Amino acid sequence: MARGEHSPACARRWREQAVAHRWTPWQTTQAVHGCCGVSLLKAHRLARGWSARQAVQEMEELCRRQGLGEARASIDLLNAWENNRARPRPQSIELLARLYRANAVRLGLAGDYCDDDGQEKIVVVAGADGRAPYRTAERADERAGDDMERRALFHHALLGSRFSMSGRLLAEIERTRQDLDRTLAVATVSEEQLDRLDEQVLRYRREYITSAPLPMLYGLMLELSDVRVLVAARQPAVAQRRLLSATVMLSLLAADALMKLGDTRQAHAWYDTARTASDDMGDLRLRALVRAQQAMLPYYYGELADTVRLAREARALAGSAPSSPAALGAAAEARALARMGEHKAARVALAEAERIFAKMPPEGHDHLAFRFSERRLQFYRIGTLIELGEEVDGTLGPPGPYAIDPVLILLDQAAQLARGGKVEDACQLAEKALLQVPLEHRTSIVLNRVRALLEEVPPARHRAVAVRRLMDLLADATPVT
Questions:
Q1: How many beta carbons lie within 10 A of that of residue 206, not counting itself?
Q2: Cβ(331)–Cβ(350) below 8 Å
Q3: How far apart are CA 94 and CA 105, in angstroms?
Q4: CB 134 within 8 A of CB 127
Q5: Second label for 101, Cα 20 to 30 Å away, from 32, 174, 303, 412?
């Protein structure tokens, strides 16, 4: 297994998904390639559940059965092809295409010569005799068919209100991000299209505050598919900046939704996509916003030191002018430092967040994702003070019935009670918090906090009524995954 690849168990789970949902071998291959960090050629083998030895044996049997002569392949040679350490000869490409019932494009072994207008891709592959190359054309309608299939999948999931994420959907989310990354590197869009896109982004930011993460994620994938088409060709500078700004915001929303769902690998990847777009745009405040938002991923799932580092990067990029990214960076740093036990530094950072916020000009639309409002400042202030061991009023005025910020505050308070030895009080408060969470909002970011609380309960206290009730409630809780 090469560095960075997932274990064989991951590919096995994709094969199980494929059987359950009757995927084609090519669909299974795409899922393995998109998720497991392997080449397309290796994904074909893993999608069939073959070891390298079995693949060589299948190749030898194919040559014998079809009278193709001796198969000039070995396990070492196949591994070199799969890991891009060597390129197969034309005869071997032909044989691999027969073995996997694919073409050189789908094996990842074709040259790519795409016209500037993107309408036609000419793939040059040497013939089986190694002399006369032949050409095949992969036209735009084939790629459009893949996009339509992907959009139909997300439409079906969104309209069906599915609150579980299948392996196929995970793979398509990853493919959407990869496609977007590719098109960022490569113009015609109307002012009307850009205005509509700005309105859509604003709507998503408004609805995100109270929407369940999974259906929101599906909707974002549909919108990002549209954006990718517009970004596919370079636009005039003004239009390009607006497209990049939309890409950043939509990618940040996707990353945040995946963070709530507990998929840290894809969340990191989407944050990287947002960073690519913001760096390309060159807007320092937008670059700062990406890092400030990304700082919360290690806060919930990683190392607190990474949260502090990203928060400080955000503040440095934001500069001296008071802004949402600068205030969020200071507030996130304060919360992480308080949890790390660096109380004096935490108070300094919190005071800085409050100072920046007090100087920020009114922006309107307080209930927007990524807008550092009074309510967001209150959320971070309460979280920091709880970690500092202070008694605080944890009440927030929620903008809607299903925002999880009040729940996270209750869980912070419960954790503080548990650290102080008040185990039953902590479990009662955590139970109250969990019961406030509707099914579609019952994601890893909530359930992991409850599990962490229970892990701190001494075994001798496990028989306490409040502890048992919380354990039973957690066992019955159905996470959104």
A1: 16
A2: yes
A3: 12
A4: yes
A5: 174
Q: How many CB atoms lie within 10 A of CB 395?
A: 10
Residues 6+ apart with CB under 8 A from 372: 324, 325, 327, 328, 331, 357, 360
Regarding pTM above 0.85, the answer is no
- The pLDDT value given to residue 420: 84
Domain ranges of the chain: 8-110, 111-281, 283-394, 403-481
State both tokens at 298: 């290690």
Q: How far apart are CA 129 and CA 37, in angstroms?
A: 33
Res 178 pLDDT > 70: yes
Contacting residues for 434 by C-beta, under 8 A, at least 6 apart:
407, 442, 446, 450, 470, 473, 474, 477
pLDDT digits (tens, 9 = 90+) for 295-314: 999 999 989 999 999 999 99
Question: Which residues does 286 contact at the CB level (< 8 Å), separation at least 6?
Answer: 245, 248, 278
**Interior/surface letters 3-35, b for 16+ CB within 10 angstroms, e for the rest:** eebbeeebbebbbebbeeeebeeebbbbbbbbb
DSSP 298-323: HHHHS-HHHHHHHHHHHHHHH-SS--
Stretch (H or E) spanning 351? helix 343-359
Alpha carbon 230 to chain centroid, angstroms: 21
Q: Which two tokens stand for residue 322?
A: 């008071």
Q: What is the CA radius of gyration of the chain?
A: 26
Angle made by CA atoms 186, 190, 194, in degrees to the nearest 5: 80
Polymer length in residues for the chain = 481
**CA–CA dist 289, 237 (Å, integer):** 22
* 449 vs 362: CA distance, rounded Å: 34
DSSP string, 432-481: HHHHTS-GGG--HHHHHHHHHHHHTS-GGGTTSHHHHHHHHHHHH-----
Closest CA to 33 of 10, 56, 57, 59: 10
Which string of DSSP letters, residue by residue, matches 141-193? HHHHHHHHHHHHHHHHHHHTT--S--HHHHHHHHHHHHHHHHHHT-----HHH
Asked if 175 and 401 touch (Cβ cutoff 8 Å), the reply is no
Determine how many CB atoms are found less than 10 A away from the CB of residue 66.
10
- Kindly report, residue by residue over 131-153, the tens digit of the pLDDT: 333 333 344 444 555 666 777 77
Give the separation between CA 282 and CA 446, rounded to whole angstroms: 35
